[in-house]
C-alpha cells in the first residue's frame, strides 16, 4: 500500500484519540462537580432558614407584635373598667350623702315643734293637732263650746259642789274632768297633769269620743 495512506490513518487515529481523551476529562470534571454539590438529607436538615412573610404567612416578628398589641388592649380595657368602677362608687357615695342630708333635714323638720299661743285658742289648736295624730274626732267649735260651758275658759276651775266633789274626786280643768277619767283616757305625749290645759282637753275629747262618738256630740254635762 502506498505510504501516504498509512500516515493519514495514523493522524486520524491520533485526532480521534485526543477527542476521546478530552471528552473523558469533561465527563470527569462534570462528575466531580456534581459530587461536590450533592448533599445528604442529614446535611440539608442542619441548614437554618429565616422565616419570610410571603403569601400571607406570619413571621415570628408578626406574632410578637400581635401579642404586644393584645397586651396593650387588655391594659386599656382594665383601665376603663377601673375608671367606670371608680365613677360608679363616686356616684353611689354622692347619692348616699344626698340621702343622708335629706334624712337629716326631714328629721330636723319632724322634731321642730309647732308653736301655739299660750291661751285658750292656742290650747285648743294644740289639742286638735294631737287629736288628729291619734285619730281622735272633734272640732274647734265642739271643744270651744263645751269648754265655755264647763269652765268659762279657766284651766284652774274646780267643781267643789257636785257628786264627784262629795266623793272626793272633784272635776277640774277646762273640760271639768275627774282624776280617774283623766288617768284612763290620758293621751300619750301630753303632760300627766289633770289641770294642764292641753292634757285636760285631749283626755276629755278622748273620753267623749269613746262615750258619745265625738266631743262635738256633747251639749251638756257629760
Number of contiguous helices: 8
What oligomeric arrangement do these chains adopt? single chain
Distance between the termini: 189 Å
Low-confidence stretches: 1-47
Instruction: Note the overall shape.
Output: rod-shaped
Question: In angstroms, what is the radius of gyration?
Answer: 62 Å
- Helical amount among residues, as a percent range? 55-70%
Largest sheet: none
Number of β-strand runs: 0
Order of helices and strands: HHHHHHHH
Mean pLDDT: 80
Structural class: mainly alpha
Relative strand content: under 5%
Q: Could you outline the blueprint of secondary structure elements for this entry?
A:
Layout: H1 3-37, H2 41-45, H3 60-111, H4 120-133, H5 140-150, H6 163-166, H7 179-185, H8 197-212
Helix pairs in contact: 4-8, 7-8
Structure, described:
It is a single chain. The protein is mainly α. Helix content is 65%, strand content 0%. The protein contains 8 helices and no strands. α4 (120-133) packs across α8 and α7 (179-185) packs across α8. The longest helix has 52 residues, at 60-111.
